[in-house]
Amino acid sequence: xxxxxxxxxxxxxxxxxxxxxxxxxxxxxxxxxxxxxxxxxxxxxxxxxxxxxxxxxxxxxxxxxxxxxxxxxxxxxxxxxxxxxxxxxxxxxxxxxxxxxxxxxxxxxxxxxxxxxxxxxxxxxxxxxxxxxxxxxxxxxxxxx
Length: 145
What we know:
By secondary structure, this protein is mainly α. Helices cover 44% and strands 6% of the residues.
């Protein structure tokens, strides 16, 4: 057997294992938990996405880096619902004024509140499981079950 055909077989076998592993990991529904947003928070998520908030801000460390991570903004001391409303009204530093109406502000705040309840970021109590998943501590024990 030629050297190149050995390499080809090795690559095909490795690719097959990679595809099988990814199929198993990403098709498994049991490890995602049961996090569900309310209708109001889903409307807030829609406004979050329509205004491309994730291009500047992160949730759980994913997103842009111009603005701060907003995963736990609702529960940070001195940054409650009123702070978030003020931020949405006038922007902060380089954040533009979006001129959100009252409904849009309410649903955005509800979205951030429910995201805040899902967990901590960064999560110092996370554990890497042998199957590749990360086990994290949730704020609300109903999440992740």
